[in-house]
Amino acid sequence: MSIQICSFPLHPRFSLRACSQTAARSTRIFARTENESSRSDQQQLNLSVLRFTFGIPGLDESYLPRWIGYGFGSLILLNHFSASAPISESQLRSEALGLSLAAFSIALPYFGKFLKGSEVEKRSLPDEGEQVFVISSSIGDSLKEDLAWATYVLLRNTSTVAVMISIQGELCVRGYWNCPGQMPKAQLHDWFKRNVDEIGLADVKETLYFPQYAGSALSWDILPDGTRSVFVQPLVHNIDESEKMDGFLLVASTAGYAYSDKDRAWIGAMADKFRG
Amino acid sequence: MEAARFINQIQIPKNPNRRFSRPPLDFPRIIRASSSSTSQEPKSYRGPKPSKNLVADFVSRNDDSVRSLPIYVGGASLLAVLFNRAVSGIAPVADASSSQSRADLLALGLAVTNLLTGLVWLSIRPKTITPVEPEGVDCKVLEPNLPASILSELLWAWESIKVATCCKSLVIVYNGICLLQIGMAAKSPDANKAVLVNTDKLMTGSVYQGVFKSKAQSYLANLSLYPGRSELPFLPPNTQAVILQPLGDKGIAVIGGNTIRGFTSSDQAWISSIGEKLDATLGRCFLDSDEISQETDR
Fold first, then answer.
1. Chain A neighbours among B 241-260 (CB < 8 Å)?
2. Tell me, what's the pLDDT at B16?
3. Residue (of A31, A36, A35) closest to A16 by Cα position
4. Are A76 and B103 in contact (CB under 8 A)?
5. CA-CA distance, B287 to B297, in Å (whole number)?
6. CATH classification of the domain holding A170
7. What is the number of structural domains in chain A?
8. Are residues A140 and A225 both part of a single domain?
9. Domain that holds residue A76
10. CB-based contacts of B89, cutoff 8 Å, min separation 6
11. Preceding peptide of A234 cis, ω within 30°
12. Residue B103 is nearest to which of A37, A47, A91, comparing CB atoms?
């Protein structure tokens, strides 16, 4: 069965050019009409814009200021060092202005990422790591089915590559994890359980979201290399009006800032399914 | 049964257009790693707390002013270059002869880039659409004698869709029975009660038949433009958007929202997944009850 890698937002693009796709080295500027939908909380922010862009498929124009910043900045430095004789003060001022503009341009795409209506990075598969599907054997069939469905849906509808659900200590793990290969399923389950106890994930009291997870800061070895976002949602168990933490749901993705508010709301809804 | 296929191992196909991943810019971040030396059951959580990204918060809060910032920076630098030329007494001639003019040209190029980026950011500013409060009454109509597991599943579906999307009304019809009508409903003209779902009328109407034939989710982003509106009289009259989700072959879920185009494509994907799950659960429950009723008839 194939799963659809859902990149959010889905936006159909259709360009208005009539000629074929031979514009590799052309610097003509084409006008395109785009329908983009964005990741806002309650609304689909649908916008039709007339946007000037090069007609090169696969080229992400939002990073253009960064490249121009690097290019022109290095040219300014080249100009500075190849200039003969004493450099006039006005030239130094121009160069200082140019270099600060270059630094600003380099930083622009980073700021642009946080504006409303920006695109989310697509996920890619991690380099190392095994694709596993481990489910605890000591739980009932209907719960097994629910867990299988929930992990499948999380992998399909968000940019998740690894998901783990723990209910009262029993685990369901699916996706790409950094675990030793060639282990039988029962041992794998215990291996995950040991690692989870090490980190103490069962004790998490509130949701944790790491949109820019740097592998060295956290020592969660079980997550594959190349993981950039991690989201942990504790499962709440209501017994007699007292809330006890009964487990957690962990999702990890190889794209940075992968879980928008809406994604996190849906993941919370999935976690509610396994409540008490 | 359909639910079994979810247990099969899924293969995530390799994305052929794998994007070259850049390392993120290293802005100073405050990361506090909490360590705990207690070793009771369960072990305390040892790991960093999420850090606050000041840049992200600042940009999200001041969206409008950040969008026009590059324009101001680019414009100011243009003027600064010209001013510099004027002050140092060099004629503002744009040729590449002297290194001064080369440096000026490069600075001008960067200023223009910033200007254009600012214009692009302004042009892709999303239009916000305000939600419309639905006119009607709150209702919660459940089919009696439903097994507890089905009931909890239906209510869970309602809670999820209500919290995560702009949905305000939900109606689930399965096997010719209206199992659930919850949320806001149209007010019946005579009494102060909700208009109940007439399942026969719904199932013979064109809306249901269309969805049944196509077996796919139907998203009516702006309900006022849709002629089949009259076949959904139980929804509040000013419902803005509707998703019609078929539940397998035997049922339909009608989800009403309070914003035009309020359901994003992510919402649609999630709702169709929930629809498949409900179909699996309800199908099994009704299959069992059919078998039981056949046995008692015998």
1. 259
2. 44
3. A31
4. yes
5. 15
6. 3.30.450.40
7. 2
8. yes
9. 61-116
10. none
11. no
12. A91
- Residue B279 in contact with partner chain A when CB distance is under 8 A: no
Q: Do B3 and A145 form a contact (C-beta atoms < 8 A)?
A: yes
Report residue A103 as tokens: 């630094």
Does residue A177 sit in helix, strand or coil?
strand
B261 touches chain A (CB under 8 A): yes
CA angle A203, A208, A213 (to 5 degrees): 120
Task: Flag whether A12 is in a domain.
Answer: no
State the burial class of residue A182 (Cβ atoms within 10 Å of its Cβ: 0-12, 13-18, 19+): exposed
Query: Is residue A230 within 8 Å of residue A208, measured between CB atoms?
Result: yes
Residue ranges covered by each domain of chain B: 58-123, 137-297
Q: Which CA distances in Å does A163 have to A223, B92, B99?
A: 10, 62, 58
Which parts of chain A sit beneath pLDDT 50? 1-50, 216
Q: Is residue A13 part of a domain?
A: no
Mark whether A262 and A212 lie in a shared domain.
yes
pLDDT digits (tens, 9 = 90+) for B13-67: 444 444 444 444 444 454 444 444 333 345 666 666 767 778 878 888 888 888 8
Same-domain status, A103 and A210: no
Q: What is the CATH code for B137-297?
A: 3.30.450.40
Mutate to test the interface with B, among A8, A11, A34, A42 (most CBs of B within 10 A): A42
